[in-house]
Amino acid sequence: MAQFFKAKPNSSKKISAKISLEVTQLDHLGAGISQHEGKVVFIPGALPGEKVKVQLIEQKKRYARAKLLEVEQTSPQRVTPKCAHYGQCGGCDLQHLTSDKQREHKEAALVDLMAKLSQVKADSLAPALIGDEWDYRRRARLATYYDKGTKQTTLGFRALSSKQVVAIKHCPVLAASLSDLISPLSALLNQLESKKALGHVELIQVDNGNYCIIRTTKPMSANDIEKLQAFTASQQIKLIVQGNESELTLIDKEPKALTIGAEALPHYLLNDEVKLNFTPGNFIQVNGDINQAMVNQAVDWLAVEPDERVLDLFCGVGNFSLPLARKGGEVIGVEGVPEMVQQARLNAELNHLDNVSFYHTDLSADLSKEPWLGKVDKILLDPARAGAYESLQWLKKMKPKSIVYVSCNPASLARDSEPLLKHGYKLARLGLIDMFPQTHHIEAMALFELK
Fold first, then answer.
1. What HAMAP family does this protein map onto (predicted)?
2. Is 287 annotated among the ligand-binding residues?
3. How confident is the model at residue 70 (pLDDT cuts 50, 70, 90)?
4. Distance set, CA 90 to CA 27, 160, 308 (Å)
5. Are residues 386 and 441 in the same domain?
């Protein structure tokens, strides 16, 4: 007799009855932690000391995830979220916790992750780098969604773990002048003939003004260009259209093409001494004030001497390389994105620094034949979330006396501490960088010194 496969129901996704739980602590992603029937339960939005009503929405062998339905007993640390889009937009998931407690939680989570994942115990933390709790983002990328039924384009941020675009009118963590652009920009996009072809929109506030970059997959009509020109005049911003091949057009009285090094591109200053140009799409830190404090601390911790050779891995457009070069010595910046290497070289010329050189290299690949690989005195690392594990396998060839590691993911920082410890380094300093207030994201800086 023929047998037919019948899929078993996925028990891990079954919705439970409503249950009440007591929250004991937060995990490193900012979710409340409780216990139920021998399992750890993670509850986003819940705080320690609270009694909450939840539904289990996902169950695994050792843990479960729950949806917060009601706070039955409220923590004194709970505050009313400032943003009208809280809970819908996928960002700013710790707005319900007071700012000082957010920082306390992040510092504790940083120490805990380092201890658990690398057995590195931080005896004490350096003072956290902190700044404004609101209006701090100088850069944001907004998504667009064109509804064929209503023929309207929605401008906003993605919902949590979703492709859905939540319409945004105001964002309190954005620089106020950028937040004020969202509503008029949304109205403008819906007037364009090419609104079906729109992609993301990027807003940037830097030292030479406010920028709006509109991504489109098709050339814009003359009528659309006129509307953009009127918008730039009324809002006093610089508007750039990014085409399907990433080509950039500045919308001015006479639209003109922009290339790397163009004077009209955005730039920011560090200590009023170092000027860094960048092209839309290049990585820059979104919190300008914290970036300045972070660069100053890194330069201070490395304490470069005039005769020392310094290696800056994952250097970007020169955010750390150029300030380090101003201290003297020889600085080598290495980056995996060729366009950013080109921009970094231009930035060195712009700042009249001839003791710094930049190389394009895939830092996760074999580095044995790289011309820059060799003995260095000090290293600065500023990798993406995946960390710098592959690069650290070449420590024997580099033999630096000290290493400053700037991390946007304490889990990869903890993992990368293992090869450092293995090669005789010790953790000398560790501190929180509060780059993203109102969110669970933890950034940190660590100083490792050769024993």
1. 23SrRNA_methyltr_RlmD
2. no
3. very high
4. 18, 4, 45
5. yes
